[in-house]
């Protein structure tokens, strides 16, 4: 790959720390806080820009009247984004250092696109939330902090950006840092860092910040963050996507349950239980893309064959009998409302949990998260676009759902409009938000 750099990327040597695995990273912040510029800076400083890509974007930068290369264009790839100078969709980028590889999601800052921030953060191992040092903590900062806490993002770094605009004033940074830490505490974020940066100049990002040579840069901190606990170490969760019955002469009795191992490990000889049906059997074969294999681990798509012909269909979740996925007839949790229309009492919806889709009805709103006050409030007002609330959903049939705090993949659910198929909300079963939730 040809990259545009002033010097070659550093090669690993005897002093280079061992690789610590891939990190899925989401970048969020309010409008014009410099998210896309920061992402462009990370791509530029890690030598991840193709030379022809740089030339093309340099031409676009000059056509927009910029004096130099506009780093934000590396992620604002849509024509509408370039014309408006904002990010309106989630832009995924990939970059790497000698120590770690990154999958990065640059999310929108406008309040009407908060739903896209939820999408970008739903699979993140870490988050970078930008705060403009001149404006301090904004409503969107509070909202993004709440989203990261609700989605249980393990590590959140608040990057106080545009420090060059205040001449790296330590007193101003300390003031913003104190406000940020109060917000993080109110929403229940456990592992947070606050760093001063300038995405425009690169100081504090990959190069040391003025007067802070002994402190980590944003990039070095991201390299050092511990990876999320391996899904292989968690309880087995295998959501059935398809029942395979080829009925051919070569395989007249073949019946396999195809799906993806969400967590844990499944091996030939393991006893499993299907939820919500509660039927039990033993795994007699694990068929992978290249044929039979002895076992499969989290992240692998395989077909399982069982010793018994159980009435197990799409939507069932296979787990071990000693740690089964709970089967529930109602969901109680926290919902981020993503629909343009507000919630309605006893609103009929579809609920998608894992691979199962079933009919449901929204219950009364129990509490509403006040973004300004950073606390739960009682009230019967409906949830509007981008609101967060606690509510219950009555289901037409049992569904296997774990508490979100225990199993991220099988603890999340979607609320869908049955008439249009539009996603109305993203929910976390038993979700927690705030110090006393």
Proportion of residues in β-strands: 25-35%
Overall, the morphology is globular
Number of domains: 3
Mean pLDDT: 84
Strand tally is 22
Which fold name corresponds to the CATH topology of the largest domain?
Rossmann fold
* Proportion of residues in helical segments: 10-25%
SSE pattern, N- to C-terminal:
EHHHEEHEHEHEHEEEEEEEEEEEEEEEE
Instruction: Identify the CATH architecture of the largest domain.
Output: 3-Layer(aba) Sandwich
Q: What is the CATH C-level name of the largest domain?
A: Alpha Beta
Rg estimate, integer Å: 24 Å
Which sequence of strands runs across the widest sheet?
2-3-1-4-5-6
Provide an overview of this structure.
The model is unreliable at 1-19 and 77-88 (pLDDT under 50). The chain starts with 22 loop residues before the first strand and ends in an 8-residue tail after the last strand. It is globular and about 75 Å long. Helices cover 17% and strands 34% of the residues. It has helices at residues 35-45, 51-63, 79-84, 114-121, 139-150, 170-187, 218-224, and strands at residues 23-29, 91-96, 101-106, 126-132, 155-161, 192-196, 237-244, 256-263, 265-267, 271-275, 279-288, 291-293, 295-297, 301-306, 317-319, 327-337, 348-353, 356-370, 375-378, 388-400, 412-416, 423-429. It has a 6-stranded mixed sheet, with helices on both faces. Strands 7-8-14-11-10-15 form a 6-stranded antiparallel β-barrel. Strands 16-20-18-17-21-22 form a 6-stranded antiparallel barrel. It folds into 3 domains: 23-224, 3-Layer(aba) Sandwich (Rossmann fold); 231-319, Elongation Factor Tu (Ef-tu), domain 3 (Beta Barrel); 327-429, Beta Barrel (Elongation Factor Tu (Ef-tu), domain 3). Residues 20-232 form the Tr-type G domain. It is an enzyme of class 2 (transferase).
């Amino acid at each position: 790959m040809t990259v545009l750099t002033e010097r070659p990327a550093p090669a690993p040597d005897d002093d280079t720390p061992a690789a610590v695995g891939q990190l899925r990273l989401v970048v969020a912040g309010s409008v014009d806080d410099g998210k896309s510029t920061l992402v462009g800076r990370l791509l530029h400083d890690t030598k991840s820009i193709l030379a022809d890509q740089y030339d093309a974007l340099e031409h676009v930068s000059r056509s927009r009247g910029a004096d130099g290369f506009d780093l934000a264009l590396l992620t604002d790839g849509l024509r509408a984004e370039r014309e408006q100078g904002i990010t309106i969709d989630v832009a995924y980028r990939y970059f790497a250092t000698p120590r770690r590889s990154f999958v990065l999601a640059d999310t929108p800052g406008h309040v009407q696109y908060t739903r896209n921030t939820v999408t970008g953060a739903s699979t993140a191992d870490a988050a970078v939330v930008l705060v403009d040092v001149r404006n301090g903590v904004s409503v969107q900062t509070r909202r993004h902090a709440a989203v990261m806490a609700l989605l249980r993002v393990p590590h959140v770094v608040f990057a106080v950006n545009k420090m060059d605009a205040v001449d790296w004033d330590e007193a101003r940074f300390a003031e913003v840092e104190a406000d940020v830490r109060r917000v993080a505490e109110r929403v229940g974020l456990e592992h947070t860092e606050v760093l001063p940066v300038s995405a425009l100049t690169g100081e504090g990002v990959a190069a040391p910040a003025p007067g802070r040579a002994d402190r980590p840069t944003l990039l070095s901190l991201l390299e050092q963050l511990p990876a999320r606990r391996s899904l292989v170490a968690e309880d087995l969760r295998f959501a059935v996507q398809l029942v395979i019955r080829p009925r051919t002469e070569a395989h007249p009795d073949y019946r396999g349950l195809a799906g993806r191992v969400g967590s844990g490990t499944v091996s030939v000889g393991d006893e499993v239980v299907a939820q919500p049906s509660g039927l039990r059997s033993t795994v007699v074969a694990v068929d992978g893309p290249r044929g039979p294999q002895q076992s499969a681990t989290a992240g692998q798509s395989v077909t399982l064959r069982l010793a018994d012909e159980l009435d197990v269909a799409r939507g069932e979740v296979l787990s071990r009998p000693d740690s089964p996925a709970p089967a529930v007839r109602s969901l109680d949790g926290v919902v981020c409302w993503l629909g343009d229309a507000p919630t309605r009492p006893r609103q009929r919806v579809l609920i998608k949990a894992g691979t199962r889709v079933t009919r449901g009805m929204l219950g009364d709103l129990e509490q509403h998260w006040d973004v300004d006050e950073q606390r739960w409030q009682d009230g019967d007002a409906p949830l509007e676009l981008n609101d967060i609330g606690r509510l219950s959903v009555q289901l037409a049939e049992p569904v296997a759902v774990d508490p979100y705090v225990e199993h991220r993949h099988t603890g999340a659910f979607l609320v869908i409009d049955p008439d249009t198929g539009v996603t109305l909300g993203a929910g976390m079963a038993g979700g927690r938000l705030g110090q006393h939730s």
